[in-house]
């Protein structure tokens, strides 16, 4: 008996603080949050009457919440596509032996070191919706002014002040910030492919395109999957960037579940805020859990 | 820290001595025994962290330090978002049972949330002990009273239905700045003229300033009874007169700057009027402090008038201070509330902040021209509660309505706004 405790005792002792802290501050709080989401506490007045899942069904039937889910979908698709395209392109360019590779790598990676809040303040100004041909157009600033002064005035638009596509404009700074990170992932992937494989393919008479299509890309798919998971779950939880760019939290055009949760919480609608939190958790879990299962199975093999 | 405390104490003592030398030192006669014997720190929570609000708070603290040299004022102000950041911090503290000694809240429906949550102490006896009931206007006391009990002490009164105009822009458009439009339709005609002159007719900023514009268009179009009825159920949100009012709002909104959502807060919108880029800005009268600070002169640089169609109506909001349940230093908090309610405290605070004193006995001879006119209007106008500032409806109701108004800014769908406003009213009016 004692021998067995001696076997797993020290390990458990070492892990105990983590288990307790994570247990209280993550899992217990998730359970507590779930409990609140089942009550009817829609005002500051304390209330513990359970109403089952009616908060969830009301939310899912609410056109504002549906709009925020649609926004989230657009944001995630544009954000993912943008970072993957730019990240891959840059990694591909840097993979060729090029002069000043180190400098370019640093340049592309740097935006990631800035917090969303700080860059958001700058992007608020850059994404100002005023256009030069509108009344008061002489005050135009940011990208619209830039486009106008280089003769691309027709490309001016109202950026995030658009109820349908506005949220895609929020993806622009997010792409700018995280493409470098995806580039680093892909670059590591490229470097992980032994030179011998390329040489062997070339000797076999493989064209450059076919080399990428049949040799390089298949080996990059685990990297690609990691990038999709990391960017995807960041996009689902994106809050600070939107909050920094858009002055008023309660702005319909760019409402996503995370910002809507905040608005509900400020308005003392704790039950709805908790329900939105649970929906977000489930959405993120759908993305992350299959990935965790996949990697743990891969490790076992 | 110790050194800072002793410095503050020294400054407070000095202030007291100086006041004594002037021979004007009035010991606060209306101080209840526990408040005058209070010692230690008084933590006061506000969102007055900068601008004219900070100046006002500093003036108030100066009076407080003179009244109660034994107490130290602990400034717990949280900046940002017209109080929305502060309210979330406060909500968390109250929920955790860790309240400040006193916190700022808008008088009216917003206070209701805290009362329902049983987070506020009843201050009725405080009012009688200090004879405050007679010193505040009855209209205001009525709005602070819930089930016969009063829960907060108002510090200042603001008016939300004021239009600020650039004299130069109006003249260029062929309008007479001294003769504002009488009603909504006449105003829309004026907006059209400014548009023709090439300027932005009406400046507005993000979501809450649009709600403020919306409420005043409703008030102008529906009249006092119709507007009040929206909040107590007497007016049908689905009625044809509300449709007409929302149509007017759509018309008015079409004359505003297109980058309204990008403006960081109300001040940049008011700045457009100051810069001569826009003709009008509808804004609460805290804008007066901004005009004054920037050295603009009323009459020559800018002019102001009640929202067309709301002459004789005072769309009101007020800040007030509370005594939360479980405050660490209740005696100190009562001392703070005494200073807030006092004529001297109100005069010092409101002169700096640009608002008008809630206490009618405060001396206002040296107040600005605008403030004097607002004091006069408040004493004789019909008073209604502002929607955008939490006086008319609880925060959750206001939130839902704000989302609908923000959505309307994008799609201009009159039927959708009316429908969701009606649904929201049904949800909360119960």
From TrEMBL, chain A:
The keyword rRNA-binding does not apply. The chain crosses the membrane at residues 12-31, 69-94, 106-126, 165-190, 211-231, 270-294. Residues 69-291 form the ABC transmembrane type-1 domain. Pfam families: BPD_transp_1. Keywords: Cell membrane, Membrane, Transmembrane, Transmembrane helix, Transport. It is a multi-pass membrane protein. The keyword Transport applies. It is found in: Cell membrane. Belongs to the binding-protein-dependent transport system permease family. This is Sugar ABC transporter permease.
UniProtKB/TrEMBL annotation, chain B:
It comes from Paeniglutamicibacter terrestris. Belongs to the bacterial solute-binding protein 1 family. Its main location: other. It is found in: Cell envelope. Keywords: Signal, Transport. It holds the Pfam family SBP_bac_8. This is Probable sugar-binding periplasmic protein. Residues 1-24 form the signal peptide. Part of a binding-protein-dependent transport system for a sugar. InterPro entries: Bact_solute-bd_prot1, SBP.
